[in-house]
Amino acid sequence: MHPILSDRRRLGLYLLGWIPIGALLTVGLAERGAWLAAAAVFVPLSFVLAFMSLNAGYLCRVFPIDERATLSRTTVVHLVAGATASALWVGLVGVWATTLDLAGAGLRAGELYASRRPLLFVIGALLFWLASILHYLLIAFEASQAAERRAIELSLLTRDAELKALRAQIDPHFLFNSLHSISALTAVDPAAARRMCLLLAEFLRETLRLGSNTRISLADELALADRFLEIERVRLGSRLQVTRETDPQATACLVPPLLIQPLVENAVVHGVSQMIEGGTIRIAATRGGPTLTITLENPCDPDRPRSRRAGLGLELLKKRVVTQFGVDGAVLVEENGGRFRVEVRIPAQTAA
Length: 352
Fold this sequence. Notes:
Layout: H1 8-29, H2 35-53, H3 56-62, H4 71-102, H5 109-188, H6 190-211, E1 216-217, H7 218-236, E2 240-246, H8 248-251, E3 254-255, H9 261-269, E4 279-288, E5 291-299, H10 312-325, E6 330-336, E7 339-347
Parallel strand pairs: 2-4
Antiparallel strand pairs: 1-3, 4-5, 5-7, 6-7
Helix pairs in contact: 1-2, 2-4, 2-5, 3-5, 4-5, 5-6, 5-10, 6-7, 7-9
C-alpha cells in the first residue's frame, strides 16, 4: 500500500503542505513586478510536482533502506528518479508558460520560465528527494505501528495460553482430591460415596458449562463453590460449616471461572478436615470503588507440619491473578491465631 494514497487524511495534509511551497516558488522566482505571472506559472505546477512526487512512495517500497538493499544502490535510484521527474516537470512548466502566453494574458510567462529553467530543475529534484524522505519516514512509522500491534497480539496469545495451562492444572487437582475422598468413603459409607459421586457429576457438569466463558458473575462462582462444599459436606458432615458475607454490588461483578474454588478446596482439605472438631469457613466479598475484594478464612492447626511452599491450588491462583490482571490484581495470604486468611483483589468489572 502507498504510505500516502492509502489514507485520505495523509493525502490531504500532503497537498496542504505544497501550498506554502507554491507560495515560496512564487515569491522566490518572481521578477520585479511580475507577481501575477509567477503565481500563474508556479502555484498550479507546484501541485503537479506534488502528484509526480507521490511516485517516490513506490520507489521507497521497492528499495527500502535495510539489509536487503545497499545504500549506494538506493541513492543512485533516487538520484535518477529525481532528475527524471524534475526534467519532466521543467518541461511541463515550459508548456504551461507557453500556453499562458498564447492565451494572450500578457503575463510574459515564457520569459520568466526561460530565465529560471536551470534553477527550476534543481528545485524540482530537491523537492522530489524531500518527498522521498517523507515517504521513508511514513513507511518506518507504519512498520513501527505494525510491530507494536504484533507485539500486543503475541502478548495476548501468550497470556491466554498461560491461563489455559493454569486452568488445565487446576481442574485435575480438585478432581483428584474429590475422587480420593470418594475412595475413602466406599469402605465406610457406600451410600454416602454414591451420593458424593452424583454431586461430583453435577459439579463437573456445571464447571464445564461455566468454564467455557472467560468471565462469569461472582454469584455464579459462589454457587459453584457451594456445590463443591456440598460434596465435601457428605464426607465431613456437621464438622464443615460455612458463613457468607457478600453485597449485591460485589456478586454482580465478573470474575474468571474457578477463581474461588481452589481457595474453598484449600480451606477444606488443609484446614477444616485436619481439625477434629471441624470448623467454619467464612467467605466475604465487597466492592470498594474500582476494586473487588474476596476474602476467605478458615481454621487451621497451628501445630501442623509446615510445608516450604504454598499449596498447589493457592500457587496456581496467584499465577492466574498476576497473569490476568498484572499490577491490578493481588493475592494476600496470612495466618494468625489458628486462622488462615486469603484475600483476592481484582478490578471490579460488570457486564455491559
